[in-house]
Amino acid sequence: MYLQKRLDPQSQGDHQEVVRAQFFRFLASSGRMKLRPRYLLWLVSPLYALAIIMYLKHVQFQGDTDWLIDQTRAALDCAAQGHWIGCRDGGRFPLLQRIPVIPMIGLGFKNSRVMHCLALLNVLLVALTVALARRSLERRSRLGAWGFAAILLFGPFLVYAHSSFSEAMAASASLILVIACLEGWRGASVFALAFLAGLSRETAFPFLIVAGCLAFAIREPMRPLWRADGFAQLGFGITASLILSIGFNFFRYDGWTNQEYLDPIYRVHDLTTKCLNLNRYSCILF
């Protein structure tokens, strides 16, 4: 009976029609499928994980990171000896970059171990910053969100994260602060981020104020800036960081300014170099 059914041409024809119909139905459903960005993200994730492993295996920081660690050790020695004013060995680097270094030194890490931990922190900060920026912009424009993420990943951000420590952390703190102001995060979060971003440089506060106010204006265009949620916390956080930075300058230089940055050797005097630097910073900004 079974053999007869298999030899029956009509049965074989019906079976072929069913298979052909299922095949074309599959093609039709495949044609309606869209290649979403999240699918590409899943495809790229293993490559990104491999890049992180290779990055941590071959860490090559510039000399300023090693100087940062040594100067932080010197500053801690001055504090332990009660030398709170004029500790020149404390170095010229701002406070933000020293915050994660201090507990590592307290745990007895050598400079090489501290640098590897800072490298891991850089990778995490880059990933967190890109993810937060993409999520924030995706609510307004998906294309703009992925475009901005591509700019971060293919721009100088990754180069700074690999070549030095301070730029990645300072850029992440500043950008996440703008995202917090734009999305209306809680006041405590805005205060903490403004405080950390303000510690990235003694001269950062005017730029942070402008960036935060622009974010408030975009979020609530019809509301006065001083009434925006988080405006007071932004001001208090930046003010607190400025006061602490001035105090740190007294600790290092017995004065309220960073005297090493005021040294004429760090200034650009000729007009040609100034124009080149302006062009470079404009490219980085836009």
Q: What layout of secondary structure does this protein have?
A:
Elements: H1 2-7, H2 9-32, H3 37-57, H4 63-80, H5 101-106, H6 111-138, H7 142-154, H8 156-163, H9 166-183, H10 187-198, H11 205-219, H12 231-253, H13 271-285
Instruction: Work out the number of β strands.
Output: 0
Q: What does the main sheet amount to?
A: none
Proportion of beta-strand residues: under 5%
Determine Rg (CA atoms, Å).
28 Å
Which structural class is indicated by helix and strand composition?
Answer: mainly alpha
Q: How many domains would you count in the coordinates?
A: 1
Helices and strands, in N-to-C order?
HHHHHHHHHHHHH
Number of discrete helical segments: 13
The averaged pLDDT comes out at 78
Question: Which descriptor suits the 3D outline?
Answer: globular
Distance between the termini: 78 Å
Helical amount among residues, as a percent range?
over 70%
Stretches where pLDDT falls below 50 for ≥5 residues? 1-7, 30-35, 280-286
Q: Can you describe this structure?
A:
Helix content is 72%, strand content 0%. The protein is mainly α and 286 residues long. It has one domain. The N and C termini lie far apart (78 Å). 24% of the residues are buried.
